[in-house]
Amino acid sequence: MYQFDSRIRYSETDSEGRLTLMSLLNYFQDCSTFQSEDAGVGVRYCLGKDLIWVLNSWQIVPLRLPMLGEKVTIATIPYEFQKFMGHRNFIMLDQDGNYLAKANSVWSLINLKTGRFQMPDENMIKGYPVEPRIDMDYAGRKISVPEGGEKKGEIVVMPHHLDANHHVNNGQYVSMALEFLPKETDVTQLRAEYKKQAFLGDVLYPYVVSEEGRVTVALQDQEEKTYATVEFEIRECR
């Protein structure tokens, strides 16, 4: 398990002083990045070999979003390699060791020159010691988009949407989708499935399906091919 400690900052909270869902996702993403960098197999190492880890899916379950000033521990646990695919958990704990959130993620290693999947090398395998996966209710990686949705305008990819790999960061798709949630609701589970990369200047067309206790947002291109699908399980704010 790789972990680091932090404290919830004002810039990471909502109007009620709670950690936002996007800030939670960013903590998890940063944790995996820190592990890679500390192991010597981070962004520069991968790019030097024309490789990139691409996120296939997220499942994030917030149990209690911490408040401003709370001390927290964020940890990640790689638990399985399947050829070119890597599976890893994430957790956030409070100061007493109680779970604040749990997550699961699936990644693929891609060769930038060939566009094909590639097996991780020995340094990568050593950099991500495998441990048993955490106890949680694991959802499927694929997300079905129900019929009866509505198209909601368009989103043009801007420079702030991009990450060091020059495509839209996985968290930015979630941020876009969050805009379509009803007010006064809490997210009890987030699932995201990533299908293709979006780049600077691309136009995304949100297709939104609202059901009882669930909102699904498919971010599509003009031909209705999906970049990413984000599914939220929601409840009224307590």
Features:
alpha+beta; globular; single chain; 11-stranded antiparallel sheet; 4 helices; 238 residues
Choose one word for the global shape: globular
- Average pLDDT figure: 93
| Element-by-element helix/strand order | EHHEEEEHEEHEEEE
Number of strands: 11
Oligomer: single chain
- Beta-strand percentage range: 35-45%
Structural class assignment: alpha+beta
- Radius of gyration equals 18 Å
Helix content, binned percent? 10-25%
N-to-C span:
33 Å
What is the count of DSSP helices, taking H or I runs of 4+ residues? Answer: 4
**Main beta-sheet annotation:** 11 strands, antiparallel
Short description:
The protein is an alpha+beta fold and 238 residues long. It is built from four helices and eleven strands. The chain has helices at residues 21-38, 43-48, 122-127, 170-178, and strands at 2-7, 51-62, 71-82, 85-93, 99-111, 150-151, 155-156, 185-194, 203-211, 214-220, 226-236.
